[in-house]
Write a structure and sequence with these properties.
The complex is a heterodimer. Chain A is mainly α. Chain A has 2 domains: 4-110, Orthogonal Bundle (Fumarate Reductase Iron-sulfur Protein, Chain B, domain 2), CATH 1.10.1060; 115-199, no CATH class. Chain A is built from 12 helices and no strands. Chain A has helices at residues 4-12, 16-23, 38-42, 53-61, 65-70, 82-86, 93-106, 115-130, 135-143, 148-157, 159-167, 185-203. Chain A is globular. The relative contact order of chain A is 0.11. By secondary structure, chain B is α/β, with parallel strands linked by helices. Chain B is 24% helix and 25% strand. In chain B, β4 (83-91) and β5 form a beta hairpin. Chain B is globular, with a radius of gyration of 23 Å. The chains are: A mainly alpha, B alpha/beta. Chain A binds chain B through residues 34-38, 40-42, 46-47, 51-52, 54-55, 85-90, and chain B through 206, 252, 256-260, 294, 320-324, 337-341, 344, 346.
């Protein structure tokens, strides 16, 4: 029972809706969806989603656990809140999408190289290390996410922007080595550690 | 032993639509004294503005005429038109109602000959066609108007047009000096039957009712299909006046929506199903109706009508609440965007005319009723703390004509019980 996927499924058996309600932020709203389709039709990125929010809610209720947690759909949400303001039942759809994405990530089921997820992880690791965002390292990390050749190609295509930033003193090449830190790096990290503990206590499926 | 209380055995009915008429007639035919108050110059309310009833597709003229005949034959009902209730004070069995009566500027001498309308040149938007056309400023509201008496609009009083109207009247029925009156009535019970109004469709921003000419409401479409309506019964695109043959009906336009009306308006599914049959009547197989819906709520015996429309090859059903409407500015054509729930297919559907099946909201919301009443979160009247004021018809909830009449009959019984109890207390004294 050490695999969180196995233990999660064990607890809920075939009741994926209950699993979502208890583990996903705002998941208790999923059952309120009346399948009108306004969210799907209002989403500016709608046609690029494999499953619209409306469809995801129905899939959750139909118990399609694997399909829901492994899709990249909820990672497509840009938080424009169009669906939230138009939803006739006032479901916090944006928040549910982020909640689903976070839950899929916690269980390790999220698509590995999905750009939004990848960026979120890189950004989080980058800024929590020193308490400050190291933009140079973050950029390089994103350039090289698809491999060495792709990274150099991307870097080359952006060279004029980089020189411009250098000239304007908006880009410091020495950031690559150590980078600046916040005043109390240890304090920030202790705080984050504590927050993670509280979060884990709240979200870990109770057995 | 009940303490004797001063009382009046009269029942006040506020609103002269089908519900108010029903309360008034049922109570009057039981021998009770009734005062029927109507804000507009005519009785009939929104029922008189319907082309046909569902599910039998008969004409409202028929049912209204029966009720008006009952009214004319009953001495117990006193009708006050152009009268509004300003306040109701007091307790069950002993209310004082204050009424404001606006000047009609036409006396009972009027023979409804129409000479004044011919003489007048000023025109005003016609509220009986939801402002879709203009009417003369001296007018008879509509063919079914009761009383059959003309009205001179206050906008022409004191103008040469007003004088022309007065001069044209052969029986001297026009009195331009008529003033507003305030009167007080003692009544025992009140039936509040102020009915409904269509939800303001312009508030549903993505549907563009305020921006796109070819987006109309279901009540406007109803007038359009009526031979007495602004288009003489022709279904035309307001953008260019061309016949509209490819018509979309959008259900739950405002209803079942926490951002607009949180209740289900109950009538709109059947109204749209009915209106698809107007399209069939106008074009035969050449017309196309598409109903965009969340669920079709054709309950009870209406299910048969729904099944009949389902068989109609000119009517298509799309299970989806339309997300937004876009307009082709050159042609006025409309494109409906959305995703359907049966298969989650994204669509961009072109239509000539879009009919928004707008929801019902109470004409006077609970908080605006000048008496101590209890209303629900949509403003529909549930009753009064004192127990002598009752909601009747659509003032009490979203109802169709048939159910309004049932509900109003029940209300008449409640009102009769109140005045009977008051009468008994008087006798005991």
């Amino acid at each position: 029972m050490s695999d969180p996927n196995v233990s999660a499924v064990e607890q809920y058996r075939n009741n994926f809706l209950r699993e979502v309600e208890e583990n996903v932020d705002e998941g208790q709203w999923v059952k309120m969806c009346m399948q009108c389709g306004v969210c799907a039709g209002s989403c500016p990125l709608g046609e690029h989603w494999e499953h619209s929010p409306q469809k995801l809610f129905m899939m959750i209720r139909a118990g399609k656990r694997e399909a829901v947690l492994s899709t990249n759909s909820m990672w497509m949400c840009t938080s424009c809140y169009n669906c939230v303001v138009r939803c006739p039942r006032q479901l916090p759809i944006t928040q549910i999408m982020h909640g689903l994405a976070a839950y899929a990530h916690r269980l390790g089921l999220a698509p590995k190289m999905q750009p939004t997820r990848d960026f979120s992880i890189q950004f989080w690791e980058n800024c929590t290390r020193t308490g400050r965002v190291n933009e140079l390292r973050l950029t390089i990390g994103l350039y090289f996410r698809d491999g060495l050749v792709a990274g150099f190609k991307k870097g080359w295509s952006m060279r004029n922007v980089a020189f411009g930033l250098l000239k304007a003193k908006r880009l410091n090449p020495f950031e690559l080595f150590k980078g600046h830190e916040c005043k109390d790096r240890k304090g920030i990290q202790a705080m984050l550690k504590k927050a993670n503990e509280i979060d884990a206590r709240k979200k870990r499926p109770t057995t | 032993m009940t303490a004797p209380i001063p009382t009046s055995q009269t029942i006040l009915v506020v609103g002269g639509g089908i519900s108010g008429l029903t309360v008034a007639l049922e109570a009057a035919e039981c021998g009770k004294q009734v005062i029927l108050v109507e804000k507009l110059p005519t009785l009939g309310g929104r029922t008189a503005l319907l082309y046909r009833y569902f599910p039998k597709l008969c004409h409202p003229v028929c049912g209204l005429e029966i009720n008006l005949r009952r009214l004319k034959g009953n001495r117990n009902v006193r009708v006050l038109t152009m009268a509004e209730v300003v306040s109701i004070t007091g307790t069950r069995g002993d209310y004082t109602a204050t009424l404001r009566i606006s000047p009609r500027h036409v006396t009972a001498q009027c023979t409804a000959c129409g000479d004044c309308a011919k003489a007048v040149s000023a025109e005003i938007p016609n509220p009986y066609n939801y402002g879709l056309n203009q009417m003369k400023a001296a007018y008879l509201p509509h063919a079914m108007a009761y009383p059959q008496r003309y009205v001179v609009d206050p906008s022409i009083v004191g103008t040469p047009d007003g004088e022309k109207a007065r001069a044209a009247c052969k029986v001297g029925a026009i009195d331009l000096d008529m003033k507003e009156e305030i009167i007080e009535l003692k009544v025992g019970a009140v039936a509040w039957a102020t009915g409904w109004q269509p939800y303001d469709a312009a508030k549903i921003q993505p549907y563009g009712y305020d921006r796109f000419a070819n987006v109309v409401t279901s009540v406007e479409f109803e007038r359009m299909c009526d031979p007495h309506g602004p288009t003489g019964g022709k279904i035309l695109r307001p953008f260019d006046g061309e016949p509209a043959t490819n018509i979309a009906f959008i259900q739950c336009a405002g209803s079942r929506d926490e951002n607009h009306l949180r209740h289900c308006s109950r009538i709109c599914c059947m109204a749209s199903l009915k209106q698809t049959q107007y399209v069939r009547e106008a074009y035969g197989e050449g017309g196309k109706s598409t109903i965009y819906y969340i669920d079709i709520r054709a309950i009870d015996r209406f299910e048969d009508f729904y099944r009949k429309v389902l068989q109609d090859p000119t009517v298509r059903f799309v299970k989806s609440k339309v997300a937004r409407i876009a307009q082709d500015d050159k042609t006025g054509g409309l494109i409906l965007h959305g995703v359907d729930t049966e298969g989650y297919h994204r669509y961009e559907a072109p239509h000539d005319l879009v009919v928004l099946a707008v929801g019902m909201e109470p004409s006077v919301k609970g908080a605006d009723i000048p008496a101590e009443v209890i209303a629900d979160s949509s403003g529909f009247l549930e009753g009064s703390s004192g127990g002598g004021i009752f909601g009747a018809g659509c003032a009490s909830g979203a109802l169709d004509v048939n159910r309004s009449v049932q509900q109003a009959t029940a209300t008449a019984l409640r009102a009769i019980q109140v005045v009977n109890k008051a009468a008994a207390a008087e006798v005991a004294r």
